[in-house]
Amino acid sequence: MKVILCNSIIHIDIGKRRNSNDEDVYEIRLRSFANDEDYDSIRSALSRRDYVSAEQSSNRLKIKSYNLGMVRLAKKCDELRLAILSGKDAPNFAEQMNDVTVVYGIMRDCI
Questions:
Q1: What is the DSSP string of 28-57?
Q2: Separation CA 101–CA 7 (nearest Å)
Q3: For residue 51, which of 82, 76, 72, 95 has the smallest C-alpha distance?
Q4: What end-to-end distance do the CA atoms of the chain give, in Å?
Q5: Which residues contact residue 80 at a Cβ distance below 8 angstroms, ignoring those fewer than 6 apart?
Q6: pLDDT for 16
Q7: Measured between alpha carbons, how far is residue 73 from residues 26, 66, 68, 78 in Å?
Q8: For 80-110, how does the pLDDT look when each residue is reduced to its tens digit (9 = 90+)?
């Protein structure tokens, strides 16, 4: 598992620290990430132009990602969140959402 995660740019050390250095808890939370709904919530909210919900879901996904050691995904979620807050690239934030989608896919594939 560690080799796959390291090759996928998941920082295990950060994830374990953020989960009380308990590898079992970290693994459970990491595996549950595959069922996370915030990514789909972001896409749905953007399609409805519900920017408040999209920003909130992006922020939740950012926090979860960082807590699991998915620093790259957390940064992409934050870039999307900041774009939504500033209104830059409205209405669909295609570039930022594409970046989130690519990195999110990499993370899900490795889990």
A1: HHHHHGGG--HHHHHHHHHHTT-HHHHHHH
A2: 18
A3: 82
A4: 9
A5: 42, 58, 93, 96, 97, 99, 100
A6: 87
A7: 17, 8, 10, 9
A8: 999 999 998 888 899 999 999 999 998 888 7
Phi and psi at residue 85, to the nearest 5°: -60, -35
Phi-psi region of 21 (alpha: psi -120 to 50; beta: other; left: phi over 0): left
| Tokens standing for residue 1 | 């598992």
Neighbours of 30 (CB within 10 A): 23
Measured CA distances, 40 to 17, 19, 35, 45, 97 (Å): 27, 25, 10, 8, 11
Instruction: For residue 10, give the nearest of 62, 80, 65, 79 by alpha carbon.
Output: 65
Q: In the structure encoding, which two tokens stand for residue 34, read together?
A: 């595959």
* Per-residue pLDDT tens digits for 41-85: 999 999 999 999 999 999 999 999 999 999 999 999 999 999 999
Q: Residues 85, 78: contact at Cβ < 8 Å?
A: no
